[in-house]
Structure formats: structure tokens, C-alpha cells
Write a structure and sequence with these properties.
single chain, 4 helices, globular
Amino acid sequence: MPADEPFAYALLRVVPNADRGESINVGVVLFCRRRDFLCLRWTLPRQRLRALDAALDLDSLASHLEALERIARGDSTAGAVADQPASERFHWIVAPTSTIVTPGEVHTGITTDPRATLDRLFEQLVA
């Protein structure tokens, strides 16, 4: 039976207009050090985002989220940060670097299956 392992995760939110403070959860990133697991899942709810900001560049937003997903995977096409260890990539992803795609707080938990936990968090908090 797999052992319980600690993990950390954060939501990724789109904040189209910081002055209004509205946001939509679009992704979740989960890191489990002992399982060497780092993965990011995201979606782009275009209709909901357009309701907040009709002028939002959804193609650029999708490109940004795809780049973050590639960084999480360690895909070298995503640049030098993707070549870092998983812990460094996780901390880079959850650091505030964009005014539109913003990470939420980092939360922790225990899991026996990081992939299933990521899927559950995505369904509960994003989808």
C-alpha cells in the first residue's frame, strides 16, 4: 500500500482587472517532493472570462498557461527555469510574476496518489 506523502498546491487565478478585484480559478499546480511529482492542470473558461473583460486577450492567456504547464513538466522548450529541479519550478510557478495570472496561497496536505489528488482539486476548485 502506498505511503501517505506530504504535498503542496496552489490555485492559479486570472484577474483581468486588478482594480475590480474579480478573479476566476483557471488552474491548480501540485508538488509532491517525495514522489518527484510536479504537475499543473488548467482550463480557460472563455465565456466566464469574457464576462469579466470582453477585451481580454484569451490567446495570450492560453499561451501563458501552456508555458507554465511546460515549466511544471520540465520541458526544456519552456526556457531555463524548466531545467531546474521540481522544487524550484514549483516555487517559480507560485511566485507572483504576472498581473493577470496570479497564484493563490500555497496549501498543504497528505496524499497516497498525487495525480488523483490533483484531479480532485481541479474538479472541486477549478472545473
